[in-house]
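Sample entry (742 residues):
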Amino acid sequence: MKVGTTVLYLLLTLGVGVAIVAGIINIQWVHGDEWRTRGEKREADVRTDPARRGNIYSSDGKILATNVTECDLYLDLHNVVELDEYGHPKYDRKGLPIESGPITDTNFYTYLDSMCTLLSEAMPQKTAQYYRDRLAGERVKEKPRRCFLVERHVPYSVWLQICHLPGWSRGVVRQVDGQSVVHQERAHIYGNMAGNTIGFQNQRESSTYTGLEGAYDSILRGQDGLFRCRRLTKGIWLPEEQHVRKEVPVRTDLDKVDTIVLQGKVNGRSIVSTIDTRYQDIAESELRRALRQYGGSAGCAILMEMQTGYVLACANLAVDTSLRDYLEVRDRNVAVSDVYEPGSTFKTVILTAMLNDPSIKIDTAMMLASGYKNFGGKYGEIKDDHTLAGRDSLNVREVIEQSSNVGMSDLGWRLYADRRDTLRHLVERMFPYEKLHPDVKAREYDSRINNLHASNRDFLNFCYGYSTRVSALQLITFYNGLAADGRMVKPIFCKGVLDGDRLIENKPVVLNPRMCSRESARMMRTMLEGVVEHGTGNNIKNNTYGIAGKTGTAVHSYANVKRYNASFAGFFPSENPRYTCLVVLENIPYYGRQAATVFKAISDCVVAVDKRLSDGAVKSVWPKLEEDSAMALQRPTAERADQSQMRKLYKTLRQPYRTADTMARWVVYREATDSTPAQYYPYEPAHGRIPNCNGMTAKDAVELLQEMGYRAKVNGYGRVLSQTPKAGTNAKHGTRVELTLR
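Predicted structure, serialized as tokens:
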């Protein structure tokens, strides 16, 4: 019996040994290559070192787009009460049910409001109550989700704060489907401002962009690095060699070996856009104000530097129905992509083409019909939409100034009724109908001119800005060329590429060195000045600087309801043009001069900011005043002020500044008397008494009080209207003075 058992054990041991040896042979020689390949893949790999995408800067040195760390916030909301063997809840020493789950009910409800507040501050478009309702609703479900998506694109700092809430750390999910919830995202630092110009990522996982991001993608993207690495421990890999460019074989399966190139990463270079955040901000805010007031569907405002073609501001606003406001809507670049019938702003193009025709000579004193005229047949009736003071005829200059459709039709009919193709070719040679292909990636549609031989009405409509479709960018390109005496340049949105500390500038691109003669351009500029001085654009007339421009209204119908596109195109200062601007409001319910006010707000901002315009490029707002003239009342004065600032103001306005003491820090203005002239006198408050700050700016008042040893509290804005304690009151050092401004 013992011998049989021993033999059985020996046979069993021998069988196991043979099986082991067979297994070793199978693994080592029969399937050795396969297992070695699998082992190599597990222990060694070729990994990617992502390159950092370059930044996009504004022309005034601000970061517009950069990479930021963002997170997708997922929570594990699963939570149950532990049960004993009889199915009854377990309780702790305090008599509370014992819970199991990443976040206990106590911690969840104690810090829920704090977490929701953090999220709403980071995502202002959603309220804290919105997040509270979602989370509380999910928590009370019978089976709460173990991976509940709360919000995407949460700032990393906010995500960390949520992780550090007491008892919440285990409930914040770190990985979803094997991928970390922390990732690099492209962010617009100024939010929605200039969104379409900067560019959007087409889809979350896409590597393609619109705007400047898309046009300069190859420069911004850089080059990802590839390096071999070996596993140290689970999840930790060490590079074997990096920043060495060479070809290495990599086995992808048993029979196939690919060759890849190991290389160090090259971070993307940054670019500098032509956008100036100061001008962009005023353009967007004023355009949004006008759209809210007049109820349009979309609009754009473009500001261009005349000589270079640099686009300093490009606001593209459209209705966002979800937020009920006007925003830079993704893939809606109004300036580039929208083509429309321009209306009266195109009259400038038509008349410039006629003036440029060598076969005719237009006398600007030529009298043309206005108000109403029938050019033949039912569809030959043309009438002006606005009254022209009862006049039935206007000269060419007045036709432009008063924007007469009848006058332009009469001029076109007289000169080109029998040679319509001639007018068409003149316009096409001068106006940039071809796609501009600007350096922002956006859909650009074909512009066109209707068949002018189809009917007399089509031809007449063309003469005053219909029967043609163009984009806003094309129209401002023409007006910019007109301001430059006929030199047409391409609109440019990128100023250059940064190579280290050096800026490689994009040079201006001349589309047409002579789109029209200098004489024609200057004649049109004079007419456009008249539009603002005493024509349809007189609502933006001012005495500070000259504006030359043209109003435009184009009517179209939708569901038998008339809607209008209002626009204003022009340049400033008209006496020495430097900037061109175009404003378009689409689909407003009634026509008028709404776009001109937006133009004026933008031009006012530019004139205030650009110091070059204060050095003689803009005519003085103040006439030269005689000593005893009643006009002297127009000279600006300040009740009390810092004398150095007043001297600078008077110098800017090129007006004489009179003072009784040039060395005094603070001055007070006094009107002329029988014995003394109107001038500034020193203001020296008595020590130990509250100074009189009435009429001062907040800055000056605070500086004066601090200089006297008092503290200031400011309420309101504007100039000081009242103060507590009153001026002249005895007060100790450190007394707080409350200033009310208005």
